[in-house]
Amino acid sequence: MRQKKKTSLKDIAKQLGVSPALVSMVLNHRGDEKKVSPETQKKVWNLVKKLNYKPNQVARSLRLGNSKTIGLVIADISNIFYSIIAKSIEEQASANGYSIIFMSSEEDPQKEETITRTLINRGIDGLILSTSCKDRDHIRKLRDSNIPFVLIDRYIPGIKTNYVLAGNYQGAFDMTEHLLSLGYTKIALLTVTPSHLTTMKHRISGYQDALRKNGRAVKNKLIKEIAYNNIKENMEKVLKDLILTEKVQAIFFLNNKLTIAGLEILKRLKFRIPQDISIASFDDIELFKYSYPTITSVSQPKEDIGRIAFEVLLKEINSQDTAKQQITLPVKLNIRESCGNSMKSLFNKI
Amino acid sequence: MRQKKKTSLKDIAKQLGVSPALVSMVLNHRGDEKKVSPETQKKVWNLVKKLNYKPNQVARSLRLGNSKTIGLVIADISNIFYSIIAKSIEEQASANGYSIIFMSSEEDPQKEETITRTLINRGIDGLILSTSCKDRDHIRKLRDSNIPFVLIDRYIPGIKTNYVLAGNYQGAFDMTEHLLSLGYTKIALLTVTPSHLTTMKHRISGYQDALRKNGRAVKNKLIKEIAYNNIKENMEKVLKDLILTEKVQAIFFLNNKLTIAGLEILKRLKFRIPQDISIASFDDIELFKYSYPTITSVSQPKEDIGRIAFEVLLKEINSQDTAKQQITLPVKLNIRESCGNSMKSLFNKI
DNA sequence: CTGAAAGCGCTTACAG
DNA sequence: CTGAAAGCGCTTACAG
User: Fold this and answer.
1) pLDDT at B169 exceeding the cut of 50
2) Which residues does chain B have within 8 Å of residue A54's beta carbon, measured at their own beta carbons?
3) DSSP string for B98-158
4) Between residues B120 and B350, which one has the greater pLDDT?
C-alpha cells in the first residue's frame, strides 16, 4: 500500500503473450542478436513506453552482480574542496550511467572502515576514497577485497593503488619561493594533524626544500600543527605566538580550513593583511579572489581530480586490467594582494 | 575473478549444519522469537564474526522491498548551501542506517525528472528534493507514485507535500527594514531567474512589504533579475546601472552566488563597501564573517533544514501516516560592516 | 526447536 | 524465432 505495485517484466510479457526472457532480451538491445522478429521488438518497446516501464535496478544488480553505483568516501562533503570534487565525479558518473553514494568519514579511520564495508555490502562497483587512515591495513584489505578503487588527494606510500592528487610538494615549494622572493625571511607554516597525511607531508617538504635551496635554515618552531577537530580553539594562541613572539613576516596556511580560521582570528586581533602580516593559502576558494585583500593561494585542479578519478575507476571496473595508475596533477600559484607586492610593503612595516 | 566470492548465508548454514533460514532469523535478532536455542544462536554469531560475514544488501532489498537508501536531488552539490544540508542529512541518515545517493539537477526541470526516476528505479525508500520545477506536474507525479518525499528550500504552492525551508519572507523583510533603519532610501534587490522559485518570490515579497510598511514606494527598476546560468556575465552591467544610473545606496543580493559574484565585480570596478555602496546578502557563508569588510547577511539554518527534512522523511517511511508536514524555520539577521553603521556613513558618501 | 519451499524481479544458458 | 528453467542471496510463511 505504501508503494503502488510497479509494472514488471512479467506484466509486459503477459500482456504481450510472450515470455519474460524475450522482453528482457529486447530491452537490453539484444533482440537482434537473439533474432527476435522486428515486429515483436516493436511491440515490446511500444508497451514499455506506454506503461512507462523501467527495469528494477535492484533485481538487475542481484542478478548481474553489478549495481552501476560507486561509493565516495570523503572526510566532509561540506568542505568546498570535497564538494567540488564530488560534483565533478557525479557529472562523469551520471554521463556514464552511474550513481554516487557518498559517506563522510570525518577524518576518522575507524569510521572510514565501517563506511567502506557498508558501501561494499550495498553492492557498489567501485570506490573513490580520500583516506584518513594512518596505517596501511585498511587500504591493503581493500586491495585484497578486489573491489576497484581510486584514492584521491591522499595516498598510502608503499601500497600500489590507483590515485589521483595534486602536486602538493610543488605547490608548497613554489609558494615558499614566491614568499622568499618578496623578501620575507621568517615564513611560518601552519599544518593540521593528523600529520601522517601525505598531502601535509608533501607540502611541508616543499616548504622546507624551498627554504634550503635558497640558503635559509628550516626552523621547526615556525612550523605549527593544529588538531583538525579544533582548529578554531588553537588558532589564536598559535597566531599570537608566531606574530608577536617569533615575529614572522608571512604565514603559509596549508589548507583552506586553516586559512579561513586564520582570517577570522587575524581580523579579531586586528592584524592587518598584508601590512602587519602576509598570508598565503594552500587550496584556493572562490572568495579569495574577491576579498579585501585578495588572498594569494595555491589552487588545486579539483574538477580534474574528480573527473580523472572517475575515469580511472571506470577503466578498472570495465577491464580485468590491474595496472594501477598514479596521477599527480599540476597546481597553480595565484599571486594576489595578501602578501604585499614588493620590498616596499616589507619596509612599510618597520 | 574481479570480486572474490563473498561468504553468503548458505555458506554459514552449511558450515554449521543448519538451514539458511535459521541463520537469517538469528542475524535479524529474531532467534528468540523463533525459539532458536541460545547455543545455536551463539554458534551462528561466532562464525559470522569469524568469517566477517555481512549480508548482501542488494538481495535484502529485493526481498524486503526496501533499500535503506534515500535519494537527494539538489541543484548543485558544490554550492555550499546544499553541501551543508547534504552533510546534515547524511549525518542523520547514517545514524539511522540509511545511505544517501545524491544527484544534481543543475536547476533543469527536465533533468530533475529523469534523475528522480533513476533514483526510484534504484529502489530508494524516500527522496529529499530541492525542486526547480515550475509546474506542478512533476511533483504531482511524485506524490501519485506514493514514494515518500520531502521538499527542501522550495515548495510548490497548491500541492500538499512535506516541506522544510527557511523563513524567506521574514528574512528579506527584516533585512530591508534594517537597511531602511540605516537611512537608506534607494535599496536595490538582486534576484535570479528562474524566478518562479518560491524562495525568490517570498524574498521579493518580504522586501516589497517592508518598503511599503515604512511608507516607501516599490520601484520595479530597482529589482533586477539575473539568469542563474550566467550570473557573472550579467552582473557588471546590472551593478553599473544600479550604482551609477539609479544611484542606489544599498544592494540586497538574494542568494550567496549573487553576493559572491557581486563582490567580484564591485572589487573590479573599484567600488568601496560600504563607502560607495552598501551590500547585504541573503544566505550567509562562513567567510562573510571574516572578510574585509564583513558582510551583513541573513543566515538560514542549513543544518536544521537537513536534519528535520530527514526526520520528516523517516517518519513517513516508517508509518502509513500520510499527514504532510510543512515546516518553516526561523532565519537570523547578521549585522556586520558591509552596510555601514549609521547615517554618518551615508553622509560620508556625498 | 528446525528445515524445505517459495518468491522478490531480473538475466542467461539451454532446449526446441 | 521463442519459452521453460535456474539462479543471484536473501526472508518468511508454512510445515513438522
Assistant:
1) yes
2) 117, 120-121
3) -EEEEEE-TT-HHHHHHHHHHHHHTT-SEEEE----SSSHHHHHHHHTT--EEEES---TT
4) B120
